[in-house]
Amino acid sequence: MMNTAEISLDLKNTVTDIYRRYGNKDSAHCFESIYIWRQEMGLSVVCSDDIYTVQEASKGPFSWFFPVGSADAKESFIKKQLEDDDPQFYYMTPEDVTFLEQRFPGRFDIYEAPESSEYIMSREIMEKMPGSSFSKDRGHINKMLRDHSFETVNIRAVPKSVVYDISAEWDASKHIFDNLPDKDANISVIEHMDDLDIEGIVLYMDGSPCAVCGGFQISANTVDCVIQKTSLKLQGLTYYLRQEYARSLSPDIVFLNWEEDLGIEGLRRAKQLMQPIDMIKMYTGKAK
C-alpha cells in the first residue's frame, strides 16, 4: 500500500503548479478543493515534482482521484497500483478516460459518474437572468428590492465571525439539502479564506448580514464557487446573491464552475434551474 501525506497548505504551490501544467480545468483536482474537502472526504495525497493524486479513505485504501501529472508519471503510478492492488479511480475527466483506454486497454471498467460531474454556468446569464425561464425570479428580486434595502460588501471587508454566523444559520435551518455533508468544508473555506485566495461578497439586508457567496479562480476565465449560503428564507434572495456575486467578478471571468451535485436530487434540480451552459463529465474507472 502506498504511503500518503496529509493535505497541508505547504503543498499549495507544488500542487497548483502541477495542476496548471497538466490539469483539465476541473474543480475536483484543484488544490483549493481537495484542501477544503480533506476532512469530510478523508483525503490524503501523494505528491512529487511532476504528479499528484489524492486518496479517498472513505471509499477504501485503493481508491484514488485520477492522477494529475506528466503522461509518463501517470502511467508509472497506475502501473504500480495495478501490480499491488485493484485500484479504483474517481473524478476522471473525458481526457483521463482517453488516457486510460490508450495506455491500459482492457484493464479497467469505466462508468459515468453523473453525481461527480461539474456544472458550468455563464456569467452573463447569471448577471442578466434573461428570458421567460427566469421571469418569476426577476419578479421576486424586484419585489425584494422594493421592500428592503441591500448593500453588497466585499467578503474580505467583513469579519469572519459574520460569515460563520450566516453559514451556521443555513446549516441549522430546514432546507432541501439536508444530506449535504459540507459543514467542515465551509469551516475550511472561512478559516482559510486568505490562504486559498477566496474572493466574494456578503449581502446586507436592512443593515444586517444575510447571505454570502465566494470562490477561487480556476483559470484565466473561470472561477469555482465554494460557498453560497443565506441566513433566511426570502424569495429572490438566492438569485440576487448569485447575480451580485457575478457582477463582482473580474472582467476576465466568463464562466463559473458550480461543482457537482453529489447525487442529491434537490441540489441537482437547483443547479439545473440555473441553466448551466456545459458540464465537465466525470467517470469512474475500476480495475478488472
Automatic annotation (TrEMBL):
Gene3D superfamilies: 3.40.630.30. Transmembrane segments: none annotated. Residues 20-283 form the Phosphatidylglycerol lysyltransferase C-terminal domain. InterPro entries: Acyl_CoA_acyltransferase, LPG_synthase_C, UCP018688. PANTHER family: DUF2156 DOMAIN-CONTAINING PROTEIN, PHOSPHATIDYLGLYCEROL LYSYLTRANSFERASE C-TERMINAL DOMAIN-CONTAINING PROTEIN. This is Phosphatidylglycerol lysyltransferase C-terminal domain-containing protein.
